[in-house]
Amino acid sequence: MGEVRIVKPASAGGVALELLVHGVGGATPEKMLNDPRTVRITGDGTAAVYRRTDDVAADTGPGDDRGRGVPVPEAYVWSNLTSGNGTRALWLLLLPFMVVNLAHWMRPAARERTRAVRVYGLLVRLAALSLTVLLVAAACEVALDLTAWQCAGTTACAERHTWLGFLSSAVSEGGWWSLPGRRVALAALLPTALTALLWYLSHRTWRAYESQEPLDRAPEPETGPAHTALGRPGFWYGRRLVARLRAAHTAAGLLTVAAAVGTAAVREDRRPGGPALLDLLGRALEASLAAGALATVWVVCRRGRSERRLDRRVDAHLVRGLPLAALVLLALTLVYAGWDRPGWSSEGRLPGDAAFGALALAQGALVIALAVVARTLHHCPRRRDPGAPPERCALHGLGGPAVAMLACALGGVMSGGVSQRVSDWLDGTGSSLDGPPVLLTWQAAVIPVLLLVVLALCALLARRTLLLIRAEEKEVVRTYGVRSGDAARTRLIARARAMAALTDRGPLLVAVVATATLLLGAGALVGAFGTGRTPARAAQTAQPFVQGAAQTAQALGSWLIGLGFILFVTWGRRAYKDVSARRTIGILWDVGTFWPRAAHPFAPPCYAERAVPDLTWRMATWTRATGGRLVISGHSQGSVLAAAAAWQLKPSDRARVALLTYGSPIERLYGRWFPAHFGPAALAALHEDIDCWRNLYRPTDPIGGPVRLSGDGCGPRVDREPLADPLAYGRSEDHPLPTPVLGHSDYQADPAFAEERELLLGRLRPETPAGEVPVQRS
User: Fold this and answer.
1) CA atoms within 13 A on the CB side of 507
2) Domains of the chain in sequence order
3) How much is the pLDDT for 640?
4) What's the rounded Cα separation, in Å, for the pair 615 and 646?
5) Which candidate, 170, 150, 313, places its Cα nearest to that of 241?
6) Does the keyword Cell membrane apply (predicted)?
7) Are 401 and 374 in contact (CB under 8 A)?
8) CB distance 438 to 353 below 8 Å
9) How far apart are alpha carbons 719 and 666 in whole angstroms?
10) pTM of the model as a whole
11) Largest CA distance in the chain
């Protein structure tokens, strides 16, 4: 802790502050403040607060130097936390990790069921651990089995790929690397390097994000259904948990590589007539791997998040010791596998079928158990007003299990597709290699079937959207009061409204895809272990149509995963470089990376662990130092950050803050999918604690929506009536040129924005300043 200096506020006048927080698309301080001359007053190149040059000293002189109570505008710019160069698009390859981390936060709202909440978190963490094992096992399958064991051990394949010549006994007779165990040991460097890369990325982002300390304060009493964990002092400080999980997942990856290398050697040593010493060493190795696996699972199960206080401790002995022990065990396994075994040749596949089958079965069981716990916790409130839908909880509390199922499906599809694609590339003739495990081939083959289900659902949604457009055309004519308007103009507005409504169909899409994935995954598991053959070979005795369909599905699934990889990287690069693409793709990505890494340490980092403490520190220090008025104005994802920061304030500071949100997904997305943290009771409690809350939204906005709360002195409701978009149907004296359909952008262009802003500033009254504020100095 650095030196503490007491700073006395220079002014106690009625200075008002308007803190602007932009949304997903990002913005420059010049655009947010509508002035080309801006100055950074606090922060760094990653996230900072800016003011106009003329406003730098607006709250340091006597009284209100600006006069007439005009607020001092400040812009908090956080776009560098989520944007960057195109190489950051590679984070999309870790999409399954991010999705399973989302499942942790989708826990239903619970009433005094602490044990069930802990079980829910435990199940999600175990599912996340299985995804790490699956990813490393898929890398082992590609490097060890397909490349080093099968291709390098087959003359035709090794001759076709000359870069494998030094591994092939047929090409390099008597070469040191030609022994099967040594080939496999050398190939193990690839999945080991992948595990090391994941550790490095997680460690680097951990130092940059999880180590940002929030405002330290005493915890508030947690009573009643209105409580939300977002108000806990340690919510945005997951330093200790992420360090523990990183150690466990790194150890799990290294142990997976060790198991893949050692299993083949153990199987060889157990054959009749094998060396007794190596057989004994193999049994000791298996026992050590089992002990390491149990220790890893114990670390994952032992501790969840510590949110009630700032837990600054890091379990250094565990964080360093567990991965180091796994690395030492891997090194010993490589030495054991590379021992000279006369007469050993690589035939068939490495024993990976049982491992992938056990992983798939375990993931299915975890998802089903998670669904049972989620139903136990589920409590969805009744609708609060006649205009609200009767049900606002996504999938009746099963959103978390459905999303966890999608994460497991993404991992399985990527593993099966990549393995099948590499097998097809190595085996040019299609007859020289046995290929990947049968289960992975079945998983790749079900991809076209899943796509057909998705396409059928999209066709259904498209039909409903067309019907909705027709209904909206009548509503547009009624809203704008036109008798015989322009048909093209009417249809343009109606289409914008209907397309915006598709966001509310998200739960249906997730439910259908998750259910289809569970059923198809079960079918793949039964087909793989029931027939013991690939889909194409299993259908050889069937009708010609069935044979052709099986062969097509198997081949198409392999190619689709390659296409999906290219699309992932292309869309990711575009989302980081193109503003329009970022607004469509970015909202889903920013929702996923908004939440701390509570389940998977290799998920992309949580930008809110930097942004929320930034906003909290700025609001708390400013209100205490000046005693002035403060309106925090958030657009889109910025409104979620603003609400999260307000929850982190002390009650006395929170009462001095007014909240203006526009284009906000806080209820439409977060309230439905994350009811335990943004449910109606939590939002109502926040509304009661702050001075006032006003919300603006448009029916053409696909992201923002109403918060559905009753009002107080600000008005009968928090939500203003839906804003007209466009502002005028046709030409008028106020709008001589056609006005555009704005959708999610440019809310400040609507006169209602200025009215609501003035309402909030007029309600707040200056209070006596706190007098003295402790400020930390580094």
Assistant:
1) 19
2) 4-82+607-776 (3.40.50)
3) 95
4) 8
5) 313
6) no
7) yes
8) yes
9) 12
10) 0.89
11) 98
Q: What is the pLDDT of residues 660-678, one digit of tens each?
A: 999 999 999 999 999 989 9
Q: Is the peptide bond before 726 cis (omega within 30 degrees of 0)?
A: yes
- Are the C-beta atoms of 398 and 371 separated by less than 8 Å? yes
CA-derived radius of gyration, the chain:
29
Euclidean distance between CA atoms 96 and 130, whole angstroms: 11
Nearest-angstrom CA–CA distance, 205 and 602: 10
Helix or strand or coil: residue 308? coil
- Residue 541 CB burial class (10 angstroms; 0-12, 13-18, ≥19): exposed
d(CA 753, CA 750): 6
Q: Which two tokens stand for residue 257?
A: 């590589």
How far apart are alpha carbons 132 and 96 in whole angstroms? 9
- The Cα–Cα gap between 689 and 217 comes to 17
Compute the distance between CA of residue 619 and CA of residue 241 in angstroms, rounded to an integer. 28
Sign of the alpha-carbon dihedral angle for 414, 419, 420, 425:
positive
- The answer to whether the beta carbons of residues 22 and 29 sit under 8 Å apart is no
The DSSP element (H or E) to which 42 belongs, if any, is strand 38-43
pLDDT score recorded for residue 88: 58
* Cα–Cα distance, 573 to 603 (Å, whole number): 18
Task: Classify burial at 466, counting beta carbons within 10 Å of its beta carbon; exposed 0-12, middle 13-18, buried 19 or more.
Answer: exposed
SS3 assignment for 347-393: CCCCCCHHHHHHHHHHHHHHHHHHHHHHHHHCCCCCCCCCCCCCCCC
Q: Is residue 69 over pLDDT 90?
A: no
Q: Are 625 and 9 in contact (CB under 8 A)?
A: yes
Q: Alpha helix locations (H) across 378-446? A: 399-426, 438-445
Torsion of CA 605, 609, 615, 620, to 10 degrees: -170
Contact at 8 Å (CB) between 401 and 370? yes
Tokens standing for residue 463? 């039909």
Q: Taking a C-beta distance cutoff of 8 angstroms, is the pair 607, 209 a contact?
A: yes
**Residue 618 carries which side chain, given as an amino acid letter?**
R
How far apart (Å, rounded) are the C-alpha atoms in residues 716 and 106?
A: 31
Cβ contacts of 232 within 8 Å, gap of 6 or more:
219, 307, 308
d(CA 373, CA 264): 39
204-260 pLDDT per residue, tens: 888 888 878 888 777 776 655 556 888 888 899 988 899 999 999 999 999 999 999
Decide: residue 529, CB within 10 A, 0-12 exposed, 13-18 middle, 19+ buried: middle
Q: What is the pLDDT of residues 297-329, one digit of tens each?
A: 999 998 777 887 887 888 888 889 999 999 999
Average pLDDT on 182-203 reads 92
Beta bridge partners of 48: 43, 77
Q: Which residues pair with 16 in a beta bridge?
A: 629
Q: Which helix (H) or strand (E) holds 629?
A: strand 629-635
Assign 218 to helix, strand or coil: coil
The residues pairing with 662 across neighbouring beta strands, listed in sequence order, are 635, 696
DSSP state letter for 395 = G
pLDDT at 112 over 70: no
